Amino acid sequence: xxxxxxxxxxxxxxxxxxxxxxxxxxxxxxxxxxxxxxxxxxxxxxxxxxxxxxxxxxxxxxxxxxxxxxxxxxxxxxxxxxxxxxxxxxxxxxxxxxxxxxxxxxxxxxxxxxxxxxxxxxxxxxxxxxxxxxxxxxxxxxxxxxxxxxxxxxxxxxxxxxxxxxxxxxxxxxxxxxxxxxxxxxxxxxxxxxxxxxxxxxxxxxxxxxxxxxxxxxxxxxxxxxxxxxxxxxxxxxxxxxxxxxxxxxxxxxxxxxxxxxxxxxxxxxxxxxxxxxxxxxxxxxxxxxxxxxxxxxxxxxxxxxxxxxxxxxxxxxxxxxxxxxxxxxxxxxxxxxxxxxxxxxxxxxxxxxxxxxxxxxxxxxxxxxxxxxxxxxxxxxxxxxxxxxxxxxxxxxxxxxxxxxxxxxxxxxxxxxxxxxxxxxxxxxxxxxxxxxxxxxxxxxxxxxxxxxxxxxxxxxxxxxxxxxxxxxxxxxxxxxxxxxxxxxxxxxxxxxxxxxxxxxxxxxxxxxxxxxxxxxxxxxxxx
Length: 529
Fold this sequence. Notes:
Elements: H1 2-13, E1 25-32, E2 49-54, H2 62-65, H3 67-70, E3 74-78, H4 79-82, E4 83-86, E5 89-92, E6 97-101, E7 108-118, E8 132-135, H5 137-144, E9 154-162, E10 171-177, E11 181-187, E12 195-198, E13 201-203, E14 212-215, E15 229-234, E16 240-245, E17 252-254, E18 277-279, E19 301-305, E20 314-315, E21 322-324, E22 329-340, H6 342-345, E23 346-355, E24 360-361, E25 365-369, E26 377-380, E27 386-393, E28 399-406, H7 407-410, E29 416-424, E30 430-440, E31 494-496, E32 502-504, H8 513-528
Parallel strand pairs: 1-8, 3-7
Antiparallel strand pairs: 1-9, 2-7, 3-8, 4-5, 6-7, 6-9, 10-11, 10-17, 11-14, 12-13, 12-15, 15-16, 18-30, 19-20, 19-22, 21-30, 22-29, 23-28, 23-30, 24-29, 25-26, 25-29, 27-28, 31-32
């Protein structure tokens, strides 16, 4: 019995720690499912989309029985993003959840229910395909925070891959049963089902239908519809649950236990962070924030207002942000594609300009624009706009303006995205925008990963902390700590090398610290026998 206990200690200590949550990934887009294939609809990609995989389309009464449908939290991802490569097999992500963070600042989850492809190869936004999530219309409105369907057609977001938080029990339905094969759909699993065990054989979801195809058990050439069979479902980390089924089509069979969820909201750091640096040279007024935004669609646009009013609006180029005063009062504007709550994201906004003549400022104007039409503006007021500025004459005889608004003191808590600062001076004066940037209200609360968090063919383990060099024909994986995808764990007696391959432990002092602890504890236990 003591020997059994020793083996259990070894097995427990040698098992790698597995995290169910992915890191946080910024620079994603959210589009509205109602616009898919609607040529007259809104959206960058959704009018040119078609649904390729639909995990639960054959579930009876899916609007009631499938959690993603009944809770209006279903979502679709690109076909490339839809498959998880694990042990060199493509596994559909049906049932996995995405944690979504967007402009409403409300953390939400959606259940991956299928995939899409773009049917128009010349769509100018096609480069965003693999970073676009299509969600249920009700969920889209919640993420936007606008509660107006005309507010926008695409949202910026940060996402995480997570186990679902829904309290559902995995279910199965047999959609086709004949004497040879049976097609089975799993739903409400809250996790990706990596494989299914039935009658001592493992089955994997079909990459076209997303269904599991089993060999139909028969007796004397007939299907025994009264007999109860057991299927065993496995997630990626080896956890399993059972469902008892009968070989009767279109009947829902439900497990008595859910998959255990390891999601921990207190450590699930993720947030939506809009672009901070509009025009930045050296951050001469300080308080420059790290800018993780890398999305040329969701970036701040700059413009010139010849009369100081919203229209006419003349776009400016960031590599040549200069304009001439056509009137004694003109405006400089910045615009974000969608309204955001600026005081919740930013502490300051800073503007530095140089001009030929001294200038005077007028009170800034703030608007919320719906869509891209500046004719459709709603005026917005902060609680009490708190700003300071200075104008100094430079050795070059040009006049330098340094202007900063404290957004926290100003209490700009509502949604806005179009801002005009108006100037007065002599007609013909040339003004150049030297710097314009936001300062984040809070420090970045998560590690930014530069990889796609997907296993590659042949990956077997997490190489992040390995000190074992790759073999001569292997390429090392240079993941930032916390950014390595889960591609499996090495068996006892093997360790992960820097190429994400499991290699047999040598007799030399190359064993991991964990294995050293195992041997030490085993020795102590043996001495006690």
